[in-house]
Structures
1.
Amino acid sequence: MTQTSNELPESPRLSPAARILWLVLILATLYLCYFHNLGALGLVGPDEPRYAWIARDMQETGDYITPRLYGKPWFEKPPLYYWSAALSFKLFGVSETSARFPSAIYALLATLSLAWLALRLYGAETARWLLLLLPTTVGMIGFSHAAATDMPFAATLTIAMVFAAGILGLVEPKGFAIHTPKSSFYTNTRLAGLISLILFGFFLGLAVLAKGPAAIILSGGAVLLSAAFTKRWRDAFRCLHPVAIASFCLTALPWYILCARHGCCQSQTSGAWP
């Protein structure tokens, strides 16, 4: 049987026992590398206590627009981590574990998105190994255990670039499968492409809310490098589709606009955008 562009690469079939073993190994690895002993150490260095304090202030005051450190506006970083940690404090109480829990969740989301991409490109076996090995890397373990902006930024940017791979045609958007006695084909791939554009803009907007305009520079550089290596310059402009731009603006701009309306930027006392 000839493999079509919509079919996944073939992987060796696993027995039920092997599937259960893989599942247990992957779940254990994800837990041990990302969630185990999140609060074993106190908040380390200047950044973790500072970011946790700002998130705690947001949770206690209910002001989710203006990050404040010791009562004064602090705009060293945008608010995505602060929002995430404030929600964690509200759900689980104020602690080192709660302060670091958002980074662990973002690390998990980044890993799952890359596993999905590996599944689409290389098949189930590659995806399984990615889920098993990526969490064991030093960077993923370290930043998933840090109350900082690094993992939220890396995760949201990673997810955005996974959707960009679909927009660029590296992964063909898959629609809903329709099987008939004579054929098997896919419909609504245009809808799948539209969803990819929306989610690309959304997660890129979140990356900007995590660490500022660096997200635009890094994603744009990656897209241009891909176009340069593949000589598919026209495909690179798909990422500038109006739907993606609208989704990005609706995600990233409201906080900046609210800050301007509240006069936050004029009252900045320290820190700078990266």
2.
Amino acid sequence: MPNRSKKYLESSKKIEPGTKHNFNEAVKLVIESSFAKFDETIDVAVRLGVDPRHADQMVRGTVVLPNGLGKEVKVLVFAKGEKEKEALDAGADFAGSDDLIEKIKEGWFGFDKAVATPDMMGDVGKIGRILGPRGLMPNAKTGTVTFDIARAVTELKAGKIDFRVEKAGIVHAPMGKVSFGVDKIVQNVSAFLETIIRLKPASSKGTYLKGIAISTTMGPGIRIDAASVKDFNK
């Protein structure tokens, strides 16, 4: 068992081991149990009743969190001509084509998200091995390969996140900062879970939401009673 700090152990005393909490109670508790000097990020982990080894049970999607993530998201757009101008007008931090590709080849990564117009993907693909491992490769499935550049940039700036179920059947995603307070985190988590439920594969049998846990960057995990979010599945 890893060594835990005194503050972590003190925080853990507020949580009964194995107890599943009502959705709203869990959010309140996770905020109360935060102890770091910085504004911790709140994360959610959802264990799904799917087998990601089968393509028809892959759960992947995007959601725009109502209250964002609590941090500035720097967006880069690979585009030319009018689409480059559209990107900058929409608030993109960087926009261009060959010049940006060359900078990235040289080791520059001053952005958090990347978008590309479809006609640029041939060139962007040449740095796929650089962008891919960092989660920065534009992808049509997450809406980051598109000609609707203004919308893509606006959504990313507003707090759009993408998620994908891991091999163990778990989806992890950030939900904002402790400083947001209970109501804003509840709204963000609600939007995320609604999207997860909507993406339930037709081939998934039995219990779909098998487990939900919420935690801060430094704090202990708190289990959420999946039944307390059943009202989302209407």
3.
Amino acid sequence: MITLRKSADRGLADHGWLKSRHSFSFADYYDPTHMGFGNLRVINEDLIAPGTGFGTHGHRDMEILSYVLEGALAHRDSMGTGATVVPGELQRMSAGRGVMHSEFNAARDASTHFLQIWILPSQQGIEPGYEQKAFTDADKRGRLRLVASPDGREGSLTVHADASLYAGLFDGNEQATLALVPGRLGYVHVARGALQVNGQALVAGDAMLLRGEPRVELARGDDADVLVFDLAP
């Protein structure tokens, strides 16, 4: 079964300094039909104004990924981590038994545009952790590059969850296929551009939810930047 989730149907929060689109229920946006998908709990598309950001706040028992599209995201946490995430990089913070952190726009004269992703962990109360890696455009061009997985294989980040995340860039005749093991869920989020997913046209902000489907097929991209999740049911 295939379900489309159009960009315009997502929740919207406009705080002035922050504009955010919520694919699933989050904060003041509540939709009982969109509480998550499998163990994927949050995809927020955030746009942070220059000189602003999220002050220090806490998380626990969640795998949190940040995928920067434009600008620069400054990160500080109670583990002693201080880092800046830029386009082409993926950040993973395992909140585990509890961590405090802050995130700010590190680009002085431009907004920072990124995706914040939360995945439910396989085990609660683990030691908090942090990881950050760069994946070049060449790594992702015309293919699905594994960027996060439970075992960190193929140079991906390690998430403490039964989920794998792939990233790809597609244009023109470039295409790729990801097989889904029976019983697994597939989730496709178009971060930028447009492309066809399993024969259906998606544009930036759109998503496709796949249950009981044998594969994800990507084709006919138009400057597309896409994330594909292989998830536990």
4.
Amino acid sequence: MIIVTSLTPQDFTTGEVLALYRLRWRIELAFKRLKSLIGLRGPPGFDERSAKPYILAHLLTILLLEPLIDELEDSPRWAIAA
């Protein structure tokens, strides 16, 4: 695996960079799962006045549904080792 980063070796060890990458990937997967759960594709149009409320409404939906996700999903969630 090759990871390109602007973090310097003096500030972050290789292990710390890999831990940050793993965390980032977990966040990406969580957003992908939530987007598919609520059907978020993209804003309807390019006007900020309609796009911003559309995105905010979907984020609110995610916050409201998060406690119920286990009951709504078709497949079980598997524990991810940190």
